[in-house]
Automatic annotation (TrEMBL):
GO cellular component annotations of the record: cytosol
Domain (Integrase catalytic): residue spans on this chain: 1-132
InterPro entries per UniProt: Integrase_cat-core (IPR001584), RNaseH-like_sf (IPR012337), RNaseH_sf (IPR036397), Transposase-Integrase (IPR051917), Transposase_IS30-like (IPR053392), Transposase_IS30_CS (IPR001598)
Role, per record: Required for the transposition of the insertion element.
Protein family membership: Belongs to the transposase IS30 family.
PANTHER family per the UniProt record, alphabetical: TRANSPOSASE, TRANSPOSASE INSI FOR INSERTION SEQUENCE ELEMENT IS30A-RELATED
Protein name per UniProt: Transposase
Organism name: Paraburkholderia piptadeniae
Gene3D superfamilies cross-referenced by the UniProt entry: Ribonuclease H-like superfamily/Ribonuclease H (3.30.420.10)
Amino acid sequence: MTLVERQTRYVMLVKVASKDSEVVANALIRHACKLPQELYKSLTWDRGTEMADHKRFTVATDVMVYFCDPQHPWQRGSNENTNGLLRQYFPKGTDLSVYSQARLNAVARRLNGRPRKTLNYETPAERFQQTIASTG
């Protein structure tokens, strides 16, 4: 799973064993605590069945889940852009099950250290740290 904090474009990659809704919800609940609550107020998801357990996720994290309209990927623009960047590391069709969470974390660190035009050429990591400092 790809989680992108929209304001800072900070990326977290989450390894899941399957697309089973319970497995996905549990993984999201574990990772929700890694972002400050001020930055993690909602989650926008496509319409896949893997988020069927979204109500349990919301109860456990106090994070609202919104769903995109069918065939409207631009409603998740930050995530779609990030997925495009990830193709540089994992080409389409790559079996991601062979990669460890540590490897996914390393790729996320590289993306978070990459300057972005949309952030005035700051990195997501820099912007994330600035945002945390201003909310803390």
